[in-house]
Amino acid sequence: MIKDPFKALVVEADGAGNFTRAIKHRSLAELPAGEVLVRVLWSSLNYKDALSATGVRGITRHYPHTPGIDAAGVVAASTAPGIAEGDEVIVTSYDLGMDTPGGFGQYIRVPGAWVVPLPEGLSLKESMILGTAGLTAGLSVAALANGVTPAQGEILVSGASGGVGSLTVAILARLGYAAVAVTGKPEAATTLESLGATRIISREEALEDGARPLARPRWAGMVDTVGGELLVSGIKATHPFGVVSCCGMVASTDLHLTIFPFILRGITLAGIDSQGCPMERRRRVWRHLATDWRPAGLDGLATVVGLEGLDPYMDTILGGGVTGRVVVDLGA
What we know:
The protein is of the alpha/beta class.
């Protein structure tokens, strides 16, 4: 049964440039055109959602707006081939939650090309504990595994207490890699150890030898989620023919280093774009996440809130205060 109106978190701008957030009722008629109407049962909070919710125009240009780059639920209506009413599906990335109303509303309407069938082995809730963070972690590990085996040495994971970092640690551990977790949060150590981190080090330890054009080789590879000095230091300290994947820029968008690591050690730098990832690759990673790459202890990573309890976490995640994943229950 389709509900109309439905509840959604709505961000609005006033004439003075101030932004406010509130739970409101929206109509299905306010949703954009699209082939698939999804009743959203679960979503999750990402850094990009918080930016949209605070009025960052580089993320969302038009307000009022409903953020939420992740959504999982049941198809309420569809004209897309191969997608039927009642199907359980995942929608992440593309323009969802940016300028297309997102998963912080009980309904979304999207193109059929954005929809991924829920893989066997995952519940809708579990798919949102993973969400864009899990997809990004999976793509990062796939890039790393293309050139580095577990036998070659330790893998450095920066920003390990965040969503992408913690899931990366868990996937690497599942695949037999020795994951060295970098975090500035000592209180996250127990969680990271439970996910399979073999060692936990501080930012200062990871930045050792960071001023040199090349550092002593320490890592077989790296998954970087923050950018900036940690990424630069990790590249310089990667073993010959290692792989470094990079998906974040919260620390910096700049990359200050020479070309020595690339032409003297043959290191590969792999950029990760989960937003525009081709559908075939996207589905393949989701299948892995549901089976052989499935992180252990998924439920332990999740803080579950209702739509009404989401607001305080917006500022927390922008300040780096969220460990693990904040998952939003819209079906309650």
